[in-house]
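User: quick one, fold this
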Amino acid sequence: MKPGRAARLCFLLLCLCCAGCTGWQSAMDPQGPAARRLDQLFWLFTGTAALIWLLVMLVLALALLRRRMPPEAVAEHRSTVAVGGAVAATVLIITGLTFASYLATRQDSAGHADALVIRVRGFQWWWEVTYPDAAPDHSFLTANEIHIPVGRPVRIELAAADVIHSFWVPNLAGKQDMIPGRDNALTFTVQQPGIYRGQCAEFCGLQHAHMALLVVAEPPEAFERWRAAQLAEAQAPRTPEAAEGQRLLEIKACGACHTVRGTAAAGTLGPDLTHLASRQYLAAGMLPVTRGALAAWIADPQTIKPGNNMPMVSLSADELQALSAYLVDLK
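Assistant:
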């Protein structure tokens, strides 16, 4: 192996080990009942496969060590018994593992009377997140970041807007496909506060690898504070530069694709930007939410994430500065 390839392989293995140790994104670090059942199922499958491999190797070793062949009739009888036993064992093992898999996943789509319902819709290549409520003025949209209360069941209702996607937060639950025209659901409970990374687990186009999301699990009181803040309209500009940025957002193409509640921007093609700066990342995990990153994304989104549906908007340097100053204050 070439030195460069070896170094890259070592770096990749180090990243995987670090991910498993920190729990940033690892199915081996379950943080709720649903993920724990899948973790146990994984080890059951792994242990069964390892045991079968050891038995096969043992039989092979015994066959190689035999020095004398038995009579033909005895050999034929033994062969028939061995084949029949192997077939019966295979049927029993597959049946047992299938039943175990059913028991581990049957509750993933079950309903709970007190579950928090969140609707997630997959787009190329970002996530629309809706918190519905019986009262329309208590419903709101966000994007690429899901906040949930610790200890309460959460039901994620899944749909796809364009192509097949797959919702997967390894620390919290298994994968669930999102198929256009078909609604799916996933139920889980998080028992520890933390930030858990998820991603699309079904190849959905050029930027499939850059379609991440965060699940932020927090104490119930912190979640309610966050929810109340999300229900509010966008923060008013605090400086003349930010006020100019709001004006530009409303008159340029930005307002035709994005919504900022409390302003004239009411587009529905792209993510809701009302509280953009309260999120941790832009463009489904591509960039941190900073003024510089916002300016870079607005100036040339196709260089940062080729193939995405955001067009390049013609802005002067001063206009770009004003627009980024306004957006970075939308908390």
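User: anything notable?
Assistant: Residues 72-105 form the longest helix (34 residues).
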